[in-house]
Each structure stands twice: as C-alpha cells, then as structure tokens.
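Can anyone check this?
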Amino acid sequence: MTRAVLFDTETTGLDPLHGDRIVEIAAIELHNDLPTDRVFHRLIDPQRDIPAEASRIHGITSIDIAGKPKFADIADDLLAFFGDAPLIAHNAAFDFGFLDAELGRIGRKPLGRSRMIDTLALAKLRFPGMPNSLDALCRRFEIDISARTTHNALLDCKLLAAVYVELTGGRQRGFDLVADEGLTLVEYQQSGERTPRRMTVSDDEQAVHAAFVAAMKEPVWRRA
C-alpha cells in the first residue's frame, strides 16, 4: 500500500526569507491516494505579529496563537508524521519554502524536492489556461466548499484531498486494479491510466480557455 501525506500551511505573509512565519499546519495521511483517519494539525506561535491582512485570509489572530507551541516544539512530531512519504500540496513550492525556512532556523535539513507533488501543477496540465485555485477546482469537481469562509489549513487539506482523488482518478482504482500493479504515486500520474470523467465547463471558463488558445501560435485546437 502506497503512503503519501497531503499538507497545507497558513502564514503571517508571503515571504519566509523576510521574516514571515507559519501560524498553522495541517496534514492528512493518504493510502493509495485516498485519505485515512490519521491527521496532524497544530496552531503555532510564529514569535512575531500576525498582520491584519493575513488574519483576513486565514482568520487566525495573535489571540488565537497565544500560548501555542513554537515550530521547534512540534517539528519532531511533524517530521515523524511525514516520514519518508511523498508530500502533496497545492502550489507546493510555497509550503515547502516556509517549512524549509522553519526547519533551517532550528538546524534541521530541508525537505527533499524529489518528494514534492504539486496539485497546482497537475491541475494546470489537465486544465491549461483555466482557473486552477483550490476553490476553482472544487467547483469544477462539484466538491462542497460552503464551509470555506477562511483559508483554514485543516479544511483546505480535506478539500484538497478530495480534489487530488479527482485529479488522479482515485475513485476508479478499484475497478482496474491499478493499486495492485505496484505503481507509485508519480508513476501512476505519468501512466495515463485514468477513467475519463465528463466535466461541466462554465461560460467564463470557456472564455478564459479561448483567450489562452488565441494567444498561442498555431494551436493544435485550431487544426483541421
């Protein structure tokens, strides 16, 4: 059974190299791309202020993290939960960058980029020229986002896990026994062994795609 970990962070800002820190991290264990009941979730004291603009995005304020552990206090538990599994995130370079900065502050090694699976990159390959934010993908796959009033890391992980199942064709695994063929996550994504799924495309999405195609030189979509 192939294990992976899907995770998300919330932060004080956008740049870990200029003092921004993690304030929340959540992770969900996956087996054969499907979520298990194992979850890691922590609020973290970033040891600095949380700007109002950041709080408006994720809803976390300085009051919420008062008395919470520092990253150094949760690092061992987090790394143990990660193990040596592939690590999945949406716009993964952002989350990897913040975790590497936090790990560097306590003298720990950065996460290996060979472990990174970026669902944003996967979505762009599947839906070129279309909106591929987590919200957009949830709407495209008809995943309920009514509870997503802020960017809560644990809720975002649960939504992304559902999106990832759709992106990798996970719901069809039991029918073609792909899981029994010994493929890794990355090998499966590259194998093309997916069951086609009819997608509903909105007028706005069609317009975005048309504009994307119009900007290309001799696109294959226009060949007779």
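Reply from J.R.: I decoded it. The beta strands are 3-11, 22-31, 34-43, 87-89, 116-118.
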